[in-house]
């Protein structure tokens, strides 16, 4: 009989994300409410974050600190930077034939 | 820092407050470490921010105009007659400390990742090896070991060598993106290397073994008798090496070449061949 191992999906609590980012957990929840970082809510109402949230939060802080952007603008910049990353990867793979 | 704040922002010394603000905003957008992953951008961004911090404050600006780079070392009211003792309590405070407290009061912020292009020739990518590289716009130098068989677009990660973190937060990573320079003879397709193999008509017709220079050195290629232009000869495993698996193949495409100018003897022989041969390649 095959044995299956239960794999817990890798998600982080707001407290863990906060500890790794050096932020207050409430600020992490606020960023989630503003849609700046992705999160899922479980049945008890707790928020869970993917591990990639930590670098995104660092980017949010750098954009806020360095360009004095408001949260709406930061959300837009995050989306645009993601799209640029995808497009640059496409351009790179098309140039593969040197 | 020796650079002039006005030069840093690219403005004249009589610039208005609006000019200063406009120049700063434009440069801050261009050099922000999240928008610009160039390793030199972070330092530029800091210089621009520092220049703006000073020039956007009329009091600091006039002190900078007066004293230049030393403006911070001159006590705040050195040029004013000593007043009551109440003002003296402020003299010990460093303006930069005050400002950095205002601007960076949000605790540690991890550094951004940076990207730099590592340009290699096909031969260098084939062999791999050690390389010393200097990042333009910075004074950072790295000794990098390039694995043999890197491909265009591959990234080499130097952990912790990216943008500095604020406070005690960790630095970002530096990624070296491999770019393989176009080569006059070799074309890369994945790990396969393509090249054209020029041969004489008699080598192509009679068959021969010809030397071919490849990124890995010279190899002998057997051209079978009756090879026309366009025939591809595959040399298994002579393409780009693969540190984790099988190497690519090398494809040599036969191209029959004729002399541009014939000697008298060559002409005679070709004319004789033309008279004798019944070969008609255009008949299908």
UniProtKB/TrEMBL annotation, chain A:
Superkingdom field: Bacteria
Pfam family, one: MerR_2
Stated name of the protein: MerR-like DNA binding protein
Organism: Kutzneria buriramensis
Lineage: Bacteria, Bacillati, Actinomycetota, Actinomycetes, Pseudonocardiales
Automatic annotation (TrEMBL), chain B:
Biological classification of the source: Bacteria, Bacillati, Actinomycetota, Actinomycetes, Pseudonocardiales
GO biological process: protein refolding
UniProt cross-references to CDD domains, sorted A to Z: DnaJ, DnaJ_C
Keywords: Chaperone, DNA-binding
Protein name (Swiss-Prot/TrEMBL): Curved DNA-binding protein
One annotated GO molecular function: unfolded protein binding
Entries under InterPro entries matching the protein: DnaJ_C, DnaJ_domain, DnaJ_domain_CS, HSP40/DnaJ_pept-bd, J_dom_sf
GO CC, alphabetical: cytoplasm
The keyword DNA-binding is annotated on this UniProt entry: yes
Species of origin: Kutzneria buriramensis
Every J domain range: 4-68
Pfam families noted in UniProt: DnaJ, DnaJ_C
């Amino acid at each position: 009989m095959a044995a299956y191992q239960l794999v817990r999906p890798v998600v982080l609590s707001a407290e863990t994300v906060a500890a790794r980012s050096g932020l207050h957990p409430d600020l992490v929840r606020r960023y989630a409410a503003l849609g700046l970082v992705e999160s899922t809510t479980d049945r008890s109402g707790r928020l869970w974050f993917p591990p990639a949230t930590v670098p995104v939060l660092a980017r949010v802080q750098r954009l806020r600190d360095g360009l004095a952007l408001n949260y709406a603008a930061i959300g837009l910049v995050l989306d645009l930077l993601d799209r640029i990353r995808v497009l640059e990867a496409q351009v790179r793979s098309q140039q593969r034939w040197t | 820092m020796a650079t002039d704040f006005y030069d840093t922002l690219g403005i004249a010394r009589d610039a208005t407050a609006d000019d200063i603000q406009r120049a700063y905003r434009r440069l801050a957008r261009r050099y922000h470490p999240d928008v610009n992953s160039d390793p030199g951008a972070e330092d530029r961004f800091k210089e621009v921010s520092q220049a703006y911090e000073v020039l956007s404050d009329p009091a600091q600006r006039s002190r900078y105009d007066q004293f230049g780079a030393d403006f911070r070392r001159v006590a705040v009211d050195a040029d004013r007659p000593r007043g009551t003792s109440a003002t003296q309590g402020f003299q010990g405070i460093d303006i930069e400390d005050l400002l950095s407290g205002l601007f960076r009061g949000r605790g540690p912020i991890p550094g951004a990742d940076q990207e730099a292009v590592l340009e290699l020739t096909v031969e260098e990518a084939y062999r791999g090896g050690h390389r010393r590289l200097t990042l333009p716009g910075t004074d950072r130098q790295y000794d990098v070991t390039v694995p043999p068989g890197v491909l265009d677009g591959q990234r080499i990660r130097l952990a912790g060598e990216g943008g500095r973190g604020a406070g005690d937060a960790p630095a970002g990573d530096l990624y070296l993106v491999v770019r393989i320079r176009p080569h006059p003879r070799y074309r890369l397709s994945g790990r396969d290397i393509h090249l054209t193999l020029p041969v004489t008509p008699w080598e192509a017709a009679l068959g021969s073994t010809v030397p071919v220079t490849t990124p890995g050195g010279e190899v002998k290629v057997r051209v079978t008798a009756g090879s026309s232009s366009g025939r591809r000869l595959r040399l298994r495993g002579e393409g780009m090496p693969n540190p984790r698996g099988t190497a690519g193949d090398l494809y040599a495409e036969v191209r029959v070449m004729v002399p541009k100018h014939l000697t008298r003897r060559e002409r005679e022989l070709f004319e004789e061949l033309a008279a004798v041969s019944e070969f008609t390649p255009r008949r299908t």
